[in-house]
Specification:
It contains seven helices and 15 strands. By secondary structure, the chain is of the alpha+beta class.
Length: about 325
């Protein structure tokens, strides 16, 4: 069995720019991966201590004003035992060490528990495989989860075993130094062989489960694409994410008029034999690259195409050859 998780102790020094800021707001700037509500609870529970030349303050309020030169010590208690049960679900592990694990996620496996998916998720599988040794930053519902893939999207995904690794990976995602490349089968003949799709993404007003390209109020989103192979009615694209918004590739390609084959949410279903064979959106996270949180060595991983997508591509290639014959 794994060792019992330990509390984490952190120390920060407030600079001149921090003078007068609320303690909870300033702390959130130092610990952006933690919610303000979480930090406010830490403060109220006496896990935050301020030292300066004049005094030592504990049990202060979240709105306590920070002073330049303050030394702020934070004690983060170990995460509560996960309420999510470990499940012996087979995992295709691409890499694993004491800090992190990289897997080739199969399509159909939801990443973390949510309404309608309390069991048989990637988190359940990771808890079993890692014997509970996962980062607690995501809380009891999402231990170890640094980023996500849609349930029906397959491919590379990294999870963190330690909080420090989790924070470092989050910073890399935020700084956009993580390289993510996808393969997608889309409908239609593209006018350009490569390019960028730039369109802010926000939640749909008519269906809160869907995202859409918006002119106001959305979050910046940039997707780069390149045609790998064209099969007439369908094309195989290599897509690179320069931002990481919910459903980004699916939304951007649909907005361009080339929805992903099999995407039931964003218009990828058509009265075509291929649509029935697809069964799910033909989107695969092919490669993932990032710096190791502890060694800082650049790591690169590739996940082979799943059988369903590979079979569809073989069929498209066969049809293309027959058309030329």
């Amino acid at each position: 069995m794994g060792t019992k998780p330990k509390e984490e102790r952190l120390k920060f020094t407030a600079g001149a720019e921090a003078a007068g800021q609320r303690l909870d707001i300033w702390l959130h700037g130092q610990l952006p991966d933690r919610s303000r509500a979480f930090l406010q609870k830490l403060i109220r529970d006496g896990h935050v201590q301020i030292r300066n030349q004049k005094s030592e303050i504990r049990n202060q309020k979240p709105n306590h004003p920070v002073q330049a030169g303050d030394t702020v010590e934070v004690v983060i208690p170990p995460p509560e035992p996960s309420e999510v049960a470990p499940e012996a679900i087979p995992l295709d592990v691409l890499y694993e060490d004491a800090d992190l694990i990289v897997i080739n996620k199969p399509s159909g496996l939801v990443v973390h528990p949510a309404v309608g998916h309390r069991t048989h998720t990637l988190v359940n599988a990771l808890l079993h495989h890692c014997r509970g040794q996962l980062s607690g930053i995501g809380g009891v519902e999402r231990p170890g989860i640094v980023h996500r893939l849609d349930g029906d999207t397959s491919g590379c995904l990294v999870a963190a075993k330690r909080d420090r690794a989790h924070r470092n990976l989050q910073e890399q995602f935020k700084a956009r130094t993580v390289a993510k490349h996808y393969l997608a089968l889309v409908w239609g003949v593209l006018r350009r062989s490569s390019g960028f799709i730039e369109g802010s993404i926000g939640r749909s007003a008519s269906d809160r489960k869907k995202m859409r390209v918006v002119s106001h109020g959305g979050r910046e989103a940039i997707t780069e694409f390149e045609v790998v192979k064209a099969f007439g009615e369908v094309a195989l694209l290599r897509c690179t994410l320069h931002t990481g918004r919910t459903h980004q590739i699916r939304v951007h390609l649909a907005a361009m008029g080339h929805p992903i084959v099999g995407d039931k949410v964003y218009g990828g279903t058509r009265k075509h034999p291929l649509a029935k064979q697809a069964g799910r959106q033909m989107l695969h996270a092919q490669t993932l690259a990032f710096d190791h949180p502890r060694t800082h060595k650049r790591l690169e991983f590739a996940a082979p195409l799943p059988q369903d997508m590979a079979a569809l591509i073989r069929q498209l290639e066969s049809c293309k050859r027959d058309a030329k014959a």
